[in-house]
Amino acid sequence: MNEENLAVVDTAPAAEVTATTESAQTAPEVADSQVETPEEKKFSQAEIDAMISKRLAREQRKWEREQQARTTQPVVR
């Protein structure tokens, strides 16, 4: 009967140590993830203007091609 009690006593402290180790390991991970957050890209006004100008030029060319295609198609009634 004493051997059975020893086996139970031996496993209980191991579980406590494991629980302590796990919580000690998770605390630094949370701190590390907060420190390692990458900074967001910040655009200057000139960069934003360039992006918008390119997009508008692309859309204008697309619209002009569509208009030209409409005028060259025969009208079907």
UniProtKB/TrEMBL annotation:
Amino acid composition bias (Low complexity), ranges on this chain: 7-27
Domain of life: Bacteria
Segments of this protein annotated with the region Disordered: 1-43
This protein's name: Uncharacterized protein
Source organism of the structure: Aphanizomenon flos-aquae WA102
